[in-house]
Specification:
Structural class: mainly alpha
Strand order of the largest sheet: 1-2
Distance between the termini: 50 Å
Oligomer: single chain
Radius of gyration: 17 Å
Number of domains: 1
């Protein structure tokens, strides 16, 4: 069964947590910066500030620092699953639940930015690797950016 992704009640908490300055000024492309913001807010909101810091410290020791997470999604997921567990072997909040929340928030953010995603079945997040799913969302975002740039170029090139 497909659930609605664009329900504003799902994202009220995104406004709660300010981002650390190193995240805001990281040399990342727009999509990776968006992804990092969503991951950060999801961890802080669901696990709490102190537990999120513990997770980030752990990831740093495992060669997956916060600012490299968008480039190391497979490592991020693997380490998150080791710490939080997954499937029947999980702590309070499973890694899969966090991954699904991150995917939801990315979808909502992209839809608000005008990126056409088509129908998304959230059950796919459970059968598709998190990094692959995020990769598909990034492709959709990049296609939109290319189209926007082409339209801007044609407007600039056309006589007034």
């Amino acid at each position: 069964m497909e659930r609605a992704l664009l329900d504003d009640s799902n994202i009220q908490w995104l406004r709660i947590c300010p981002l650390p300055s190193e995240v805001r000024h990281a040399p990342l492309d727009d999509f990776d910066e968006l992804l990092l913001q969503i991951i950060d807010k999801t961890l802080r909101y669901t696990l709490g500030e102190e537990n999120a810091k513990i997770i980030y410290d752990y990831l740093e020791k495992r060669s997956c620092p916060r600012l490299k997470i968008p480039q190391k999604l497979d490592a991020f997921c693997a380490e998150l699953r080791l710490v939080l567990g997954h499937g029947d072997n999980k702590v309070h909040c499973s890694a899969e639940a966090l991954e699904e929340t991150i995917v939801r928030m990315v979808c909502i953010s992209l839809a608000r930015a005008g990126v056409k995603l088509g129908p998304i079945n959230l059950s796919e997040t459970r059968s598709t690797e998190f990094a692959d799913f995020i990769g598909k969302l990034k492709e959709a975002y990049c296609v939109r950016n290319k189209n926007d740039q082409a339209m801007q170029f044609s407007k600039e090139a056309s006589p007034v």
